Amino acid sequence: MRNILLTFFIVISINTFGQDTLDKIITTEVCECISQFKIITQADLLRCVQNDLDKNEAFIMKEMRAQLTDTSDEAGYKFGHDLYERTSVSMVYSCKQYFNFMDTMRYSIIKSLNNDSIKALIQNMSYSDPKSRGNDFYIEQGIMYFQNSDFNSALNDFNKALYIDSNALRAIYFKAWTLESLKNYDEAYALYTQLALVTKENTYNIYAAIAKRKKNGR
Asked: What separation in angstroms does the CA of 100 have from each of 84, 104, 106, 194, 210?
């Protein structure tokens, strides 16, 4: 029995070492690739990732065969998917350029409005009947406060939205982002991790890593 367990742990250690080596090669080379750009675009990042995967195809295939007994296309896709998800999170910690890009790219989802326009919209919303204000109202108003860097008011609205519907994913996401902006990194990390578990979207694992790196210092 001891011999069986020893063999098992040796195999696991070898596979883990190979996986860690592969992950380190890819994250290092992709970081070097994107570092050549003064302004990184999403297209630049994807091109660097694809070029590096093509470059290391033989090593990737070797590791896949070493780790998997199933060599079907489906298993190969899962191996590649898992590799991409691991490295896209670990690069937050190991590559400053990637960390900065992923951190700032999020702001592109927010409409570009000046502060006066946002204040006017918030003012107009204040005239609505309080009895008719639902979950969506508080989320949208919270986002406007967030855009205006009024993070405490934004947090108050996202909490109101979550009081109405505790499973409102947009409210959870913006609450996490607001807490991160307020430098409450532990709570932000916990909410991002919760979203990743519920939605199965790796993007939230990336945001959780960003919050953790900010807490530990850039």
From this structure: 19, 6, 11, 23, 9
Distance CA 24, CA 4 (A): 30
CA distance 103 to 91: 12
Q: How far apart (Å, rounded) are the C-alpha atoms in residues 154 and 211? A: 18
Helix axes 42-55, 2-34, angle to 10 degrees: 130
**What pLDDT, in 10s, does the model give residues 117-133?**
888 888 888 888 888 88
Strand, helix or coil for residue 69: coil
Most confident segment among 79-93, 135-149, 187-201 = 187-201
Q: Kindly report the CATH class assigned to 110-216.
A: mainly alpha
Could you tell me if 129 and 111 are in contact, meaning their C-beta atoms sit under 8 angstroms apart?
Answer: no
What angle is formed at CA 185 by the lines to CA 182 and CA 188, rounded to 5 degrees?
Answer: 90
- CATH 1.25.40.10 placement within the chain: 110-216
Residue 149's region, left for phi above 0, alpha for psi from -120 to 50, else beta, is: left
- Within a 13 Å sphere around the CA of 194, how many CA atoms are in the beta-carbon half? 16
Q: What is the pTM assigned to this prediction?
A: 0.85
pLDDT tens, 87-98? 999 999 999 999
CA dist 83 and 58 (Å) reads 15
